[in-house]
């Protein structure tokens, strides 16, 4: 009788160990599965959003510490509304979010035109060109932003540097991710 009970208990232990081993193996299989990577276009959209939020936030900081006389709110909010609240935190927050959303379009523009270019120079030139378009070509639309001739040198230098950094962030990230995505795709197709 004792042997039967011990044999039955051993059988249960073996069954439990077998179940644990199966669970362990299924977890290992799940760990070995690779997630399908995001497409280069999806990463470009995400990069645009993050870049717009990041660099407009830094632009707001430069505005508050008087390095620049313009901020994201100057373009997005103050050019359309002239009320008391547009000088506060809420206007800056709306401006930062607005620039983040508009930056998706900028990233898609870079993706469409310059994604295959390698190196920093295309990205830097993209940032300078973007600064020129915003401050020269589109300046009449933004009534709260003075013309470049009327800006002080601190504002010109600060905004130009921010646009260069923004262009570098957007451009280099997109071109790097695109080239990495292309290499992964060619390895995947070559390996099959």
Automatic annotation (TrEMBL):
InterPro entries: YqhR (IPR024563). It holds the Pfam family YqhR. It comes from the Bacteria. Keywords: Membrane, Transmembrane, Transmembrane helix. The chain crosses the membrane at residues 44-65, 85-111, 123-142, 154-174. This is YqhR family membrane protein. It comes from Pontibacillus salicampi.
